Amino acid sequence: MPERILQWKEEYSIGEEEIDSQHKRLFEIAAGAFSIVSPSERAAKVKETIRRLVEYTRFHFDEEERFMKEELYPHLDTHKELHEEIIISMNAFMRRIPEMKIQELEKELAFSIQSWFIDHITQKDKQIQAWLQKSVALKDCWSGMRSMRLSMSRLMVPTKRFCWKPRR
Ligand SMILES: [Fe+2]
């Protein structure tokens, strides 16, 4: 199961090179937890992987939030809350590590990766992509209208409304 979960898929891409490469890096780090090592090293390896994962996730979320802010993404606050929930869940997981058996730890990690990263990317980060695409289309529409010299104020208002609220 971990191998399948930790496989990056093109469908996870949100079309932003930097964000996508950071998402790929999260998968790479997580995969480290399932690399083959001697039985005596397994627990230490999983713990170290989770520690690195939390550290990189914090960096990535900051970067993603900065990106959303720059792009004037309208759902930044809600998205930030989701990031915060993931960090809280990761910290809770870390605290439980000492009392967990290695098999339980690996199983739960694989399950958590699904919700922390795969579900978040495919359901929430994908919404950023959808908004960016719409926003680019709107900018094109608006500049297209302006270049047609529809500059009389009487015409501008309905034109702007047409551009910013397109039919879907
Ligand atoms: Fe995100």
Automatic annotation (TrEMBL):
InterPro entries: Haemerythrin_Fe_BS (IPR016131), Hemerythrin (IPR050669), Hemerythrin-like (IPR012312), Hemerythrin-like_sf (IPR035938), Hemerythrin_metal-bd (IPR012827). Residues 17-131 form the Hemerythrin-like domain. Keywords: Iron, Metal-binding, Oxygen transport, Transport. GO terms for molecular function: metal ion binding; oxygen carrier activity. SUPFAM superfamilies: Hemerythrin-like (SSF47188). CDD domains: Hemerythrin (cd12107). NCBIfam families: bact_hemeryth, hemeryth_dom. Belongs to the hemerythrin family. This is Hemerythrin-like domain-containing protein. It comes from Wolinella succinogenes (strain ATCC 29543 / DSM 1740 / CCUG 13145 / JCM 31913 / LMG 7466 / NCTC 11488 / FDC 602W).
